[in-house]
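User: Continuing from earlier, I have the next pair ready.

Assistant: Great, send them over.

User: Here they are, in order.

Assistant: Folding the first of the pair now:
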Amino acid sequence: MTPPDQSDGAVRLPQGQGVLRRMLRDRNQARLGQGGAPQLPQLPAPTPARAAATAIGRAADRLYGLPMLPISVKPGALTLAELPELLPDLPLVAVLQGPGDNLGAIGMCPQTVAALIEWQALGRVTTRALERRRPTRSDALLCSDFIDALLHDLPAEMEGVEGFEAISGYRFLTHLDDPRPLGLMLEDKPFRSLSFELRVGGTEAREGRLLLALPQSGLAKRPPRPDAPAVVPPPLPPAAPRPTLQAAVQDAPVELSAILCRRHVSLAELRALTEGRLLSLPRSCLTQATLETVSGQVVAGGKFGEAEGCHAIRLRDLSVPLSEAPAAPAAGMAPAAIDLTQPDPFRAPQAPMGDFMATPLDAMGG
C-alpha cells in the first residue's frame, strides 16, 4: 500500500480511499438533486462499556443534576468467590433484589459515597479529606435512590447488548456492614460485572470506583430441529388423596348458647340490679330465639318453649318469614334432654322453671 503523502504537512488518504469517498459523495449529491433524502450516518454498534457509561451519567443527571463522568467502564465476568476481592477498599455494599429469587450486589468506594452525600446536603462536591471508616446504614439510605436510578436506566441502555439481556427488574434491597456475608446470601453462579472509574462533581470533583455484579442469565435453549420427532412426556400418575382433618373436626365439641334477646340498659340500671329484680323482655323474644357460638355467630333460630319439663327451642329456617314457617317441628332441636322430632306437644312454659322463668309472661314486653 502506498504511504500517505505528507509533503505539504497535511495527511492525505491513499488514492483508493479518496476515489471511493468521492464516488459516495457524488452519489449522495445526485440523490439530493433528485429530491431524495440525505443518507443517515451509520451509528456505531452498542457496546457494554458505552451503554453503561451513558446509563450512569444519565441516572445521576436525571436524579440530582449531578455531573458524573465515567472515566472508564470495564465489563467482565466473575464468580461468587471473586466478588469480595474485587470490591473497592472500605466499600458501601448493597444487596440487590431481582426477579424471582435472583440477588445481585453493588459496591461503591468512600469517595463516590461522599460525593453523592455532599451533593444532596451542600449542593456541591468538595475535595476535603475523608475519615477512614466503614459506611453506615444512613450512608446506604442516602445512596439508595441513586442505586435504584442506575438500575432503572441501565436495562434500557443495555438493550440489544450481548450478555446483558437479563439485568432488568433489580432494585436496592438492603445494606451490608461487612461484604463477607455475600458468599452466604448470593447463589454460587456466574456473575456479569461492570467496573466504573468515575469523576463525580463539577469544578471540584472526586474520583471514585463502583462495581456492579448481577447474576448471569441462563443459556438460551436451542430450538428443536424440524425433522426431530416430538417428545411427548409420559402421563403423570394420579395423585394420591391427601389426608384431611374432616373426621376429627366432625367429632370436635362445639359450645352453643341459646339467646332470647339482647337489651341495652343504662349504667344506672345495671348498678341497680339486685337479686330478685324482674327484667322486662319483649314478647317477640319467645319466637325469635337464636343459637350462637362463643364468637357470636348465629347457627340456627327458632321458638322458645318447654317440652317434658325441659327448656327447648324448636328450630326453623331463618330465611323463611315467621308467618310462612310450617307448624310441624323442624328436624333439628336445641340441646335439651328431649328429642323434639317426635310428635310431642310443644307449648309455652306454664310453670316457673328456675330464676329465668320467674318473670310473669304478662310483664314481659313492657
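And the other member of the pair:
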Amino acid sequence: MATRLADIAAKAGVSQATVSRVINAKPGVSDDSRDNVLEAITSLGMPLERLQRNGTRLVAIITPDLSNPIFPEYITSLTTLLAQRGFLVIVCTYTPSGTSEDGYLAMLQNQPLAAAIFLAGKYDTKDTGLSTYRSLSERNIPSAFLNGAARDMNGLYAGTDDKTAMTMALRHLRDLGHRNIGLLLGDKNHYPTILKYQAAQQFFLDEHILHNEEMTAWTTYGVESGQMAARALIERGATAIACASDQLALGAVKATSSLGLSIPKDISVTGYDDSPAMRYMSPSLTTVRQPVDKICQSTVNGLMAMMENKKLATRRDVLLFEPELIVRESTGRCSSR
C-alpha cells in the first residue's frame, strides 16, 4: 500500500496538516518540523520532488469500514497504481461510531487534493442528498465514484455491470435445474442492489420461471443478517440462493448448516465480488468476480485525464465492466428436496 499522509505524520511526529504544508511549500511550519517531515518522507521512500511535481499530489480514498473484504482489495489496487505515478494516498475509513463520510469531506476541505475516490457513499443510495460532495465540485477536484452510477452528478463512475452479474448467476443456477431460486439482496435503496433485482425479474420473466416476492429477501450487508434472511428463504422452499455479496453468501452457507442441510447437495449458493478468501472456504464459493484491477486502472487513468483537462471534471462519465462467473463447489444440480 502506498505511503499515506498519516504514515509521514506519525514518523515525523507532526500533524497531517503540517506534512501537507511542507509538501506544498506553505508557510507556518517551524524549521525543526520541516526537517523532520523531509527526513520522514525520504526514509519512507517517497522523494519530495515526486510529491511536488506538477503541483498537488494528494489523493483521498473515502471508504466505509473494511469489514467487506472487497474494499481492501480495491484500496490495494488503487494505492499501488497511484504510488507508481507519485501520488500520496490518504485512506479515510468511516464507521457508524466514528467519523462519517461528511466528516471526512469537511476535514479534507483545507487539504490540497489532486483527486478523490469513493468506494461507496451517499451517491450509491436513492433519496439521499448530494450536497456533501459540493465542496469537491466547487474546487474542481476530479472525483471518481465506484459501483454506483445511477446518480445525476458530475464525476467519473466506474464499476461492475450489476445486471450482467446477476444474470450470470441465475443462468448458472437454471442450467443446474434450479427453479425455486431465492434472491438474497442488500438495502432496497442501494442502486447496485436495485440493478441486480431488476435483472433477476427480467431473467425470470424471459425464462418463464415463476418467482414469488416471498422468495426475495432484502437485508443489510453482513454475514449475520445474511444468515437470518437466507434461513427464511430455505424454509420457504428455495433450492438455490443468489446473493448480492460474498458476505451474504457466507450467511447463506451458515443458515444451510444450521438447518442440518448440506451445500451443494441440498442448497446451492452463489455470491458476488469474489473476495480473496472465497476460494479457500469449504465448500469453496461459486461467485461472480468483480474485475477490480480493470476498474481501478480505468479509474486512475480517468482521474489523470481530468487533472490534465479540468473541463472533464465538470461532466458525468460512466464506465461499466463485464464480470466473470467463477464456478466452485457451492453449486450443484438441483436435488428437488
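Worth noting for the second one:
The first strand starts at residue 58 and ends at 64. Residues 136 and 143 are 8 Å apart (CA to CA).
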